[in-house]
UniProtKB/TrEMBL annotation:
InterPro entries: YicC-like_C, YicC-like_N, YicC/YloC-like. The lineage of its organism: Bacteria, Pseudomonadati, Myxococcota, Myxococcia, Myxococcales. It comes from the Bacteria. One of its GO terms (molecular function) is RNA endonuclease activity. It comes from Corallococcus exiguus. This is YicC family protein.
Length: 292
């Protein structure tokens, strides 16, 4: 089944005190290009995350956004300088003894001194953050693939409908091709008879003209190759592997055969079908640009 290259997915995971959210977006691209946006403290994870994406996706421009959730609203946590608190307590005792007062020190008195309790940014637990990031990324990629698969089904249905149209017109062209020669022979005979006005015409000469016309407008090879390309395209549509680039190549070949058929044919009905086939091949080409 075909897969689209367009999609979105998100995931969230928590390991210990580390909570991480990941968003994954993908768009069309000839290859698999991955861009990862990480918090500064997790920048070392980029190579591993890029590999994780490329192990699951074959093509597409993929953007990964990683956010690390703070443990508090401000992102800071209170930190106690125990050594400084001891120094304050010692200083209080010295002052009390120097003043001849009893030594009674309340813990709140020490805690309120400058620098004893201060707010600092909490350090990252790299191991927990790594596990949380990888888990959240797996969730995001799973959701992304689900969306790509769903859109791929829609693309497959659209391509199937357009392929049926082209296959039908191609069969019409193959059926009309012999008639093009006989119609030309009839028109030529009638035109020569009208111009000759009773003068005898060499039938051998007429036969040569018809043979030259048949050779010049012969589209049997183009019709056969087009049928082969259509059959190969059908096989790719049913393939579980990424087939976007191969489809793109086949569409170019289909376009070439249809163009050649149109340039050779001088039959109105064939030309009309060629115009229709060109339009559908172009629509198929646009759709294939989004196939993985």
């Amino acid at each position: 089944m075909l897969k689209s290259m367009t999609g979105f997915g998100s995931g969230r995971a928590r390991v210990g005190d580390e909570e991480v959210s990941v968003e994954a977006r993908s768009l069309n691209h000839k290859f698999c290009e991955v861009k990862v946006r990480l918090p500064r403290e997790l920048s070392a994870l980029e190579p591993a995350l890029v590999k994780q994406v490329k192990d699951r996706l074959a093509r597409g421009s993929v953007e990964i956004l990683v956010r690390r959730q703070a443990a508090t609203v401000s992102g800071n946590v209170p930190t106690v300088d125990v050594a400084l608190a001891r120094e304050y307590a010692r200083a209080f005792r010295e002052v009390a003894e120097a003043m001849g007062q009893s030594v009674e020190i309340a813990w709140s008195q020490v805690a309120n001194q400058p620098g004893v309790i201060r707010l600092e940014e909490k350090g990252v637990d790299v191991e927990s953050a790594t596990q949380a990031t990888q888990t959240a990324l797996q969730q995001a990629l799973a959701a992304l693939e689900t969306m790509r698969n769903t859109e791929g089904e829609s693309i497959n249905a659209d391509l199937d409908a357009r392929m049926k149209l082209i296959e039908g017109w191609s069969q019409d062209v193959a059926r009309l091709a012999p008639r093009a020669v006989s119609d030309y022979q009839q028109r030529l005979t009638e035109r020569v008879a009208e111009l000759a006005r009773g003068v005898a015409v060499d039938p051998q000469r007429l036969a040569q003209e018809v043979a030259l016309f048949a050779e010049r407008t012969d589209i049997a090879e183009e019709v056969t190759r087009l049928a082969t390309h259509l059959e190969q395209f059908r096989l790719l549509m049913a393939s579980p592997e990424p087939v976007g680039r191969r489809m793109d190549f086949l569409v170019q070949e289909m376009h070439r055969e249809v163009n050649t058929t149109g340039s050779k044919s001088q039959h109105a009905e064939i030309s009309a079908r060629v115009v229709s086939m060109k339009a559908e091949v172009e629509r198929i080409r646009e759709q294939v640009q989004n196939v993985e």
